[in-house]
Structure formats: C-alpha cells, structure tokens
Design brief:
alpha/beta; single chain; EC 4.1.3.3; 13 helices; TIM Barrel; 8 strands; 316 residues; eight-stranded parallel beta sheet
C-alpha cells in the first residue's frame, strides 16, 4: 500500500446525468480532460458533490470505473464508498480496489447517528477492510452526517484498529481542529482540506491538499491563491480568496450543486440535472445565475470560455 500524501487541488467530481436522470457516461471523458486542462491534481468520485448518496450501488460502481479508466493513472483517483449499510460500503471499497483506484474514503452512516467513538472506529474498520491494499481516508463532514465524534481522538485510536487509515477528508470550518489533526502523532496523518471558500486559511494552517466542488469550475483561481501564498503575497492571496467567497455566495443563493451543474453547462460541459431532491434550476434561474456570475467577473477569471447561450435542455 502506497502512503504518499495527497497534494494540490483535487476536484470533487460531478456525476453526469441525462435529461431523465440516468447516468450519462459519455460526459466523463470530456469532464476529465477539462480537469486536466485547468490543472487538477486528483479527483474525488461519488462524494457529496458526485451525489454518491443519491446513486444506487451499481451506479456508483459504474461511475467509479469510468473515472478510473478515463484518468488512466495520470492523477490519483479517490473513490468515496460511504453508505448507510457498512456491508454495502465494504463491497464498494472492494470494487474500488479491484478496478485500480488509488485511494478510498468513506463517510459514516448517518440515518442512525453514531455517538460513540468506538462505534465509528468499528464501522470504518469494516469498510476499510474491504480494500486493505488502498489508503483509507475518513470523510469528516458533520454538517451532513450529524456526527460530532472528536476526529482527533478518532485518528489517535482509529489507527490501532484500521491498518490502512492514513488520514481525513476534513470538510468543516474549524481550523484549530484541522491543525490539531495534522499535528497528531507527530504529523503521521494526511489531513486534506474540504472547504473551498476557506482555502487561504487552511494554507496558512499548513494544508498541502484540498478537495472541493468549485475546483471543477475555478481551479485557475485557486492555483493563483496558492501561488500568491507561496510567494508571500498575502494581500493578493486575500484578494483572490475574496473572489472565491463571492462566487460561493452567489451559487449558494440556489441549491448549490444544482447551480454548479448549471455553471458547468455554461462552460460547455453539460452534466444534466441533479437527482431529487436537488433537481435542476429553471431556465430563468440559470440566466439569473449567469448574470450574477458575470457581474462578479467569474467568466474573466475562471479560466474557461463560456458558451454563447445555455440550451433549454438537461445541461441547464
């Protein structure tokens, strides 16, 4: 098992659907090539962004395999396998290892909340054991799972029961906790940041890698933030991070991932609607979103040419 730490910008990829909400695998190739053009350093498949929890297990296997094939070992592919059934999650993990994924990650079950650290460790141990040859990252996203387990303690005790536990996908806003996770056990663990609009703070805290949704549409902006930080230009880094914050605020006026799919359509990558309950934006909402993004200069700094218009089809 490789234990090389993740680095750079990792796009939490979207799952392309057709107008009827079925998988549209033909768009995965163009999406992957777009991500390479904008400088992505890895992909995170079937997570919150990829609607993993809204897909059947068979669909998740299909999407995972398609991304692994299209990436073709050019950058790391991380497959999110979390499920309310830990047995099902273990099977998804085994499949990820079988198809040649580089890393697995998993949320905790959320319908029946996990309130005890030992229960979380047992659950993650079962899942991670499905792919013993792959590094395992626990996906900490308390806003969606409801889990309030201390993740620092999870790392300290979890490594005793989960041999392939190497780190976290940390999707929360507590920089102090994020820093403590990185420092745990003499910096043993790879802790990857997961809040795009706070990337600058995470970089200042020591982040070396980040996984995010908006890296699909604005990776050049985030690369400039990283470059400014590396150059010691904090004023420029703050200015650029403010662009990210403004962009996220605009998109958050709508169902976020529905809006993101609409933006991908504007950029020539029709990814279809989201699965219910997220759905799709109405045409008027798409045009309003386009106008708001134009007003803040998004199409000037996102690094991708926009289409002349958005078709009245699934790509909106």
């Amino acid at each position: 098992m490789t234990t090389q730490k993740l680095s750079g910008l990792i796009a939490a990829t979207y799952t392309p659907l057709d107008d009827q909400g079925h998988l549209n695998l033909s768009m995965i190739g163009p999406m992957v090539e777009h991500l390479f053009r904008v400088g992505i350093d890895g992909v995170y498949v079937c997570g919150s962004t990829g609607e993993g929890m809204s897909l059947s297990s068979e669909e998740r296997r299909t999407v995972a395999e398609a991304y692994v094939q299209e990436i073709d070992k050019r950058v790391p592919v991380i497959i999110q396998v979390g499920h309310n059934s830990s047995r099902e999650a273990r099977q998804l993990a085994a499949h990820a290892q079988q198809i040649g994924a580089d890393v697995i990650s998993a949320t905790c079950p959320s319908y029946y909340g996990i309130n005890e650290l030992s229960d979380l460790i047992d659950c993650m141990a079962e899942i991670a054991a499905g792919a013993p040859d792959l590094p395992f990252y626990y996906y900490h996203i308390p806003a969606l799972t409801g889990s309030r387990i201390d993740v620092v303690e999870f790392l300290k005790r979890g490594c005793e029961e989960i041999p392939n536990l190497v780190g976290l996908k940390y999707t929360d806003t507590k920089l102090h906790e994020f820093q403590m996770c990185m420092e745990t056990d003499q910096q043993r663990f790879d802790v990857v940041w997961g809040c795009d609009e706070m990337l600058l703070g995470a970089l200042a805290t020591g982040a070396q890698a980040a996984i995010g949704s908006t890296y699909n549409v604005a990776a050049p902006l985030y690369r400039r933030i990283i470059d400014a930080m590396n150059a010691g230009d904090q004023v420029e880094a703050r200015r650029l991070q403010l662009c990210s914050i403004t962009m996220v605020r605009v998109m958050s006026k709508y169902p976020f991932h529905t809006a993101m799919k609409a933006v991908l359509g504007m950029l020539g990558l029709p990814m279809g609607p989201c699965r219910p309950p997220q759905g799709r934006l109405a045409l008027a909402e798409v045009e309003q979103l386009r106008a708001e993004l134009t007003q803040i200069g998004f199409f000037d700094w996102c690094g991708t040419k926009t289409l002349e218009s958005v078709p009245h089809t699934a790509e909106t």
